Amino acid sequence: MVKLYIGNLDRGVNEETLASVFRDQGLEIGDIQLHCKPRNCFAFVEISDQTSADQAIDTLNGFQLLSTAMQVEPSVSKRRFSKQILLRNVLPHVNQQQVDDLCSTFGQVQNSEKLNLGGREEVIVVTFETPEQAQQAVSQLSGFELAGQVLRVSFFNPRRSPRNSGMNNQRPPEFPLRILVPSDCVGAIIGKGGNTIKKITQETRARVDVNRKENLPGTNEKAICIFGNPENCSKACHEIMKVVTEEAQNKNKGDIPLKVLTYNNLCGRLIGKGGTNIKNIIQESGAEVRVSSVQELPYPNADRVITVSGDTDKMAEAEDKISRNLRSSYENDMKSLNQQQMMMGGGMAPQGLALMPGMGPYNPMPLMYDVSQENPGMYGQYNQNQAPTTEVAYLYVPTSTVGAIIGKNGSHIKFVMSQSQAQIKVADKDDEEDKVENPERKITITGNRNAQNAAQFWIFNRVSEDARLRVEITVPRSLVGRVIGKGGNNVREIQRLSSAMVKIPVDPNSQEEEVPVQIFGRCRANFYAQTQVRQILMGQYQNQGMDPRGRGGGAGRGRRPGPPQLND
Predict the structure, then answer these.
(1) At what angle do helices 312-343 and 230-250 cross, to 10 degrees?
(2) Using CA atoms, how far apart are residues 550 and 553, in angstroms rounded to an integer?
(3) Residue 277's closest CA among 153, 285, 136?
């Protein structure tokens, strides 16, 4: 038997409650020793073997049980506590300085290191000056919300390091049920002293995270994220909507619909061919169901809103069917990805994985699925450390969509720049008489690879759900032949892998040092093709000992980009 330490427990937890949490995860346990002291409540749990213990730590550390997030660790004596802690669930756009500043409140941070797991999960190891400081950080940061994502914090054991645990053992990320509720109903959902939310989590065995701090941009609603098995998530959602309905009646607000947030990539399969799936859900549940379009969202995001109207029982039945469909589509995508990685070792990931979970209740600017890291393609693994500091891409959009992209007083595009860390400049507005001749506007995007990824993803989706746009990146004239390849082989292979169309118009009489590479296609295909072109350039820079900064789509031939400019 292996002993685990379970800390940061709510005082309402008893041995049976704790045992049921482990049973819900399919874990066999033995003796439970529960200790409640004046300052804290904790337990020691015996579990069958080390594999089960590792699974318990991975799945239950940070698990919301009643009002607190559990701390699950190997049981060790205090004198053996490490000075190092492990932070999981850190969102990709959070930089290490933010993490260092957060951890420094508990003591002197000697070092912080980001572990490269080869996937989307960000894992950071922080080293403190003393084990006592590390112990305080683990106790206080477990369940802490950073940039909308709940952290999972534990002591770092190099023998159990994620770097050494093997990626083949990883399970797919949780698929939470995300709903929107009116902001003025959140207090009722939480209840006095947290009693209502405690009761819901205790009765349904689901973990409920409420984003209390701020509304979703452009709305008077807050996001609630529900974790657990599908049945428990649906039960918790039903109980929450009962509270919302009662609160609305007390305030004479009328009927409040259930709003489910989901990923854009899954909506097509939910709706079904000719709307057959959604019509069946409406007919079988008796509820009204409507799926929003991307353009309807008042904030820049790739999520869609599914609005379900009816009494609470009808909404609950419709939600259950909707969640089953979405979860099935997601799991099928994950299986397809795993099979493709094992059998092919390269090429494109499934189209359904352009955006996947692994985020908190609401993440306003998720990155696209990282095709180059998971799928090296024809030119090997993309090494971000070798990439130019900044890259420039020119994205051409229909003139009629520019207003929606910029937003009122620049609100949308400012939001995208703050979240993606990219600099975005929209070209000056053409005169009215020139609109027929110039139906496109050029948007210049400057930033590193992740910034480009996020900014382009949002602009594509803001234009339309299935937008096929033109993107230009520039390459040195001396390297155009390398990009094209012998007999055009490279361009043909990029087109085959990405499904994008690639054109390189070369004017022999031009004196320009750089040549534009034009890429036409959907967002995912377009960005994949851009990545492959840049990989070819990077290989040539390395072979020739050239400095890639400012070349081949870099930041304006080495000049520092100026501040972003917004034009109506």
Answers:
(1) 150
(2) 7
(3) 285
